[in-house]
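go over my protein:
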Amino acid sequence: MRAIVRVGFWLAAAGSLACTLYTGRHNSSLLLVAMFAIWVLTPFAGLAWINRIGDSARRDIAAAIRASSLVVCISSLAIYVAMAAIRPGHHTAFAFLVVPAISWLTILTMWVAARVAQGR
C-alpha cells in the first residue's frame, strides 16, 4: 500500500497543479496564479511528511495514515478537476483556497491521532 500512496501523491499533486494552472489561465496576474499553485501543492508536502512519520509507527497506525492520505489526495483532485471543468468566468477560486486549508486540518488531525495512539 505504501507504493500506491506514493504514486497517488505524485499523480494527485501533478493533477492538482495542472487543474490550478488550467483554471487560472485567464488570470492576468502570474504572481497570483503562482501563489495559488504553491498553496494547492503544500498539503501534498504535508501528506508526505505525515507518511514519513507513519513509516516509523505501528502497522495499524501506518495503515490508517496511508488510507487517510489516499482519501485526501483523491478528494482534493476530484474537487480540482470539477472546478477546472467549470467554464471560465465562474468563481472557482473558493475551492482552491478552502481545499488546501481543509487538507491541512486533516493532516494535523492525523498527526495528533498518531501521537495519541503511540502514547506520546
